[in-house]
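Researcher: We are triaging several targets before committing to wet-lab work. For this one, the compound of interest is fe (ii) ion. I'm pasting the protein sequence and the ligand SMILES. What I need is the predicted three-dimensional arrangement of the protein with the ligand bound, expressed as structure tokens, so it can go straight into our comparison scripts without reformatting.
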Amino acid sequence: MNNITSVIQKAKDFLINNPYDEGHDLYHHLAVWKNAQHIARHIKESADIKSLHIACFWHDVVTTPIENRNFKDRDKMTIKTAEYLQKLMLELGCNKDLIERTIIAVCEHDLNSRPTTIEGKILYDADKLEFLNVKRWIKILDALKTGKMVKIKLFLYKKAGKRWISKLKRMYNFDYTRKLHDKKVNEILNNSTANKIAADLGEDLRKILIGE
Ligand SMILES: [Fe+2]
């Protein structure tokens, strides 16, 4: 196993055994990596693919054990993860530039950030597109129903969706992501499961997606 594969395998171990929650598990990270590769292939700027690959798999990893977590301390958990990742990459002999690019991308991926590197910009867009993944909505709702996820998260995720989804087009870093966003929005508006979920939650799907 080379050092890149080892770093990614460690992220997968955390995502399987200690995910942040069912909306931020291995499935989410695989989807973000798929989106990121897609975006990277369709933009003019070229990214360091190794750094992007690692950042995609580590961006929502939480190293804090579940019993010690307070979900209000998400920022602190991200810093701990970045410190852990930096140490791991050094131990595995990754070069300084790769480590720096990766850590910056991970630390600049949250909604309120404005990423400063090409890898960070791709990760940001790839991650935010996952607001529009109906299968992910279903996973989260199933986890709420079975008690795997605390009920307050439904309120928090609904609030985040209503606040941000219709604004995402202004926040993306690439026109290509905006095209992908429009395609996904159209698919969701015509998706009977998505319409049923919105109706069951008493929400106006069109208003959430396009703000009107
Ligand atoms: Fe994410």
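Researcher: Any quick observations?
Model: The chain is about 65% helix and 0% strand.
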